[in-house]
Amino acid sequence: MSEKDKKILPGTDAAADMDEVMRKFDRESATRIWEGKPKAVVSVVMALFSLYCIWSTLYCTWDMPIRLSSFLGLIVVMGYLTYPARKDHVTPNSMPWYDVVLMLLGAGSFFYYCINYKSLVMVITSAGKINPASETAIPNAWFYLAIGVVAVLVLAELCRRCVGLPILFVVGALLVYTFASGQNLARVVYTLFYGTSGVMATPIQVCAKFIAVFIIFGAFLERTGISSFFIDLANSLAGSTSGGPAKVAVISSALCGMVSGSSVGNTVTTGSVTIPMMKRTGYQGEFAGAVEAAASTGGQIMPPIMGAAAFLMAEYMDTTYANVALKAILPALLYFTGIFLAVHLEARRLNLKGIPRDQLPRFAVLIRSIYLLLPLVVLVWMVSTGTRTLQYSASIAIVLAVAVSLPHFFADSRTRHGGASLFAKDTASMIVGSLEAGGRSCITVAVACSMAGMVAGCITVTGLASKLINGVINISRMVPNEALAMFIALFLTMLCCIVLGMGVPTTANYCIMASTCAPILIQLGIGKIPAHFFVFYFGIVADITPPVALAAYAGSAIAKSDPMKTGINATKLAIAAFIVPYIFAYSPAMLFVDVTSVFQVAQIVVSALLGIFGVAAALNGYLFRPIPKWMRLALIAAGLAMMVPGSATDVVGLAALAVMVFYQKAMAKRNPASA
């Protein structure tokens, strides 16, 4: 790959351009600048936090509230050391006094709870007992209230800095509703801070127990060069085909995205290479940016990692991680098949060529780096087979990630004639850098999970969930037809998920959906697994759905294209994500629920893939020649019929699809000039 392909803008530094795009669209990248000794101190703090997370998940026997409060106290310290009040507050080695005060107050509140947990749990046994106005008020009740209020407010401010405003608007609206429903301050503080259904609810518990160590593993994995390996592998497999760079974007983004856990981050990282290549091949900027955004967003639904959401889903659905990953396979396959077919048909329509083979990595040479996959393979095997716990498996995978990096460091030290000392220095630098990056990445996820816990807490204390369920049921009952009523309920839930998911990281996104929207569908009679997958999918696609399509806007910034058109194109490319959830909501067989035979599984897979082909061709408007409007509608109907599990619909859809494909091919042969 030429150096030209690695530039986002001609004549500029690619890394600087990536940083600029990330700072604009990804709040996690708008960080303070530390230099010299302060930078070293901050790096050590981050690295020690990662070591603490690994130790606590493996060996810690503290009570859960103690573990969680200490975890969040450290998150507050690292968060305020990392994120300024505004993006332009980036003076090197500068931290305003008010940030120091907020950091000390917030961390102090959590550490106070951690240190005094056993005595607090004895005196604070109900919301009424920390209410100074009650007859059973305990001494210094105002102090306990102040501790809780300060902790929640400081955490909310950190959320504004590193996650963004959308999730805070949701929390704020729910808090207003909570107080308006008659709850007093003591009750709210107890629920959100001292209880187990607020800040320290299931999301942060899963984050501290599982997700943190997997994020640290991801940081180590990135430093093995696996992202470059995925991109080179995709180039080797598909780069020379028609419109090859777009197919490379789909494959590499799917592989990188399942580990990264960030739609925007994945879009910028892989898009900085693939988007310029797509544009030079002949794709329009709006299409190139959309391909990368749609594929990168799909990485969050790509098993086995699914942006770390798989572990949360297993917890919420009360099932195993392996079961979640298995059920996610077919929907993810349909998603990426739809995008892949769309870019292929677009390349055929524009008569685009691929990259010359002499400019691509040789597969025979590339396969020598297959050992880089060893940590990921071992991790998935250990977790899926139940050989070890999630935490222990991730820890072993981290050790393997270090091991597979050693050949590169050894070869580099020999090339630079540095010997054993340079080899040791590079290895140590890699380990410390990975620990630091892992700790830094944990900040946003932990803060978002704590906010998601507050959402769940407000819903619990007010009984809002049952009210939402009754509201959706009452609206759907206004329609006499049962199937149509179910569709309306699903559609309303979809809109709710997209709105609530705008600008929210993957893990927190799912936590919010699982607390607010999944119970609605379960109450309507949809199974727990289809309900959770439904809300997860529509929460994720908020990243490419206008008007707040952050991944699409990041892709448009690299492609120098119109953001809204890029978002619309990304939505069209990701059409499977808008169709498939409805299908498995009506027929869970697509998620391999209640499947009775291997033949049934094969039938579901083949028919669904043929169905997505029909839908993709219809949306693109080209097969062997331009497709007339009436046939595009017919292709959509045939494709949907095949995607719905069932022999009757499969036969009808296959027959209609075959007739239209052969008709298109015959017309193209009869009049090649119009093809």
How would you characterize the overall build of this protein?
The protein has helices spanning 14-25, 36-59, 64-82, 97-115, 117-123, 141-162, 165-180, 185-194, 202-222, 226-238, 244-260, 263-281, 285-298, 309-317, 321-327, 329-350, 363-366, 374-385, 390-415, 419-462, 464-477, 482-500, 506-516, 518-523, 528-540, 550-559, 563-573, 575-586, 598-620, 629-643, 647-670. By secondary structure, it is mainly alpha-helical. Residues 1-12 have low confidence and may be disordered. Helix 7 (165-180) packs parallel to helix 20 (419-462), helix 9 runs antiparallel to helix 14 (309-317) and helix 19 (390-415) packs antiparallel against helix 20. The chain has 31 helices and no strands. It is globular, with a radius of gyration of 26 Å. Helices cover 73% and strands 0% of the residues.
Please describe the topology of this protein.
Elements: H1 14-25, H2 36-59, H3 64-82, H4 97-115, H5 117-123, H6 141-162, H7 165-180, H8 185-194, H9 202-222, H10 226-238, H11 244-260, H12 263-281, H13 285-298, H14 309-317, H15 321-327, H16 329-350, H17 363-366, H18 374-385, H19 390-415, H20 419-462, H21 464-477, H22 482-500, H23 506-516, H24 518-523, H25 528-540, H26 550-559, H27 563-573, H28 575-586, H29 598-620, H30 629-643, H31 647-670
Helix pairs in contact: 1-12, 1-26, 2-3, 2-9, 2-20, 3-4, 3-20, 4-6, 6-8, 6-20, 7-20, 9-14, 9-19, 9-20, 10-11, 11-12, 11-13, 11-16, 12-13, 12-26, 13-16, 13-26, 13-27, 14-15, 14-23, 16-28, 16-29, 18-19, 19-20, 20-23, 21-22, 22-25, 23-25, 25-28, 26-27, 29-30, 29-31, 30-31
